[in-house]
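agent> Task received from the user: take the single chain below, predict its 3D structure, and emit structure tokens. No templates, no multimer pairing.
agent> Plan: (1) validate residues, (2) run structure prediction, (3) serialize to tokens, (4) report one or two observations.
agent> Step 1 OK, no nonstandard residues flagged.
tool_call: predict_structure(input=
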Amino acid sequence: MACPGKEHWETVKWILRYLKGTTNVGLTFDRAKMSDIVIGYMDSDFVGDLDNMRSLAGYLFTLFRSTISWKVTLQAAIALFITKAEYMALAEPANSASGMAIHDECKLKFMELKAKRSYRFIVFKIEESIQKVTIEKLGQPQQNYDDFIASLPANECRYAVYDFDFTTNENVQKSKIFFIAWSPDVSKVRSKMMYASSKDRFRRELDGVQVELQATDPSEMSFDIVKARAIKQQSLINYNLHAFRGPLFVA
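)
tool_result: status=success, residues=251
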């Protein structure tokens, strides 16, 4: 901390008092007496944060009747009804517990898209029978955004990456690699949960993605929306670079 004050010291003392008073408290695991099954619980309110209109969600995992993992946080998006708030809350612990594997070809082809621009886009599919994320379609460099949209099934979830070319407000040619999580409203609930629970882990494997987009309807990933996100991201980068370098001249 750059400038700690009295309130910070009071917080430190509170932590020390807590540690001193709980030295005899700990997690006890007795395999002989209890089941070794990990049990998870989750819950969510509805628009508990009136300032931001977001719901508060939390989850907890236990093993041998002892808590091993927990989290309480405001949801990243605004839920318009309680069912969606509960669904979003369920996706978080499912993501923490997900064990979906990733086929080596997924990372290999993504590196070719990023480094060599060998592909315009890649569509990924979860093969439930083998519990792996695999490649469903490779878009050739000459294909465009309409071809990409057409490659996504209307009623099934998918992951995808797209190498998006655009022109900035300064009339400079740029490109951004988008990661798109496609989860149409009409897809099966099981599929939605499976893709939601594996998204973060899979996304982390794709080193080089610059913009992430989630869509439940084609209108949420239209060409104009993607272009606006790309320009906004580039403008933010330009602003940060300018702030880091500081003014070129000082009067």
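agent> Step 4: summary for the user.
Strands lie at 39-44, 56-63, 66-74, 101-102, 121-127, 132-139, 158-167, 173-182, 211-215.
agent> Done.
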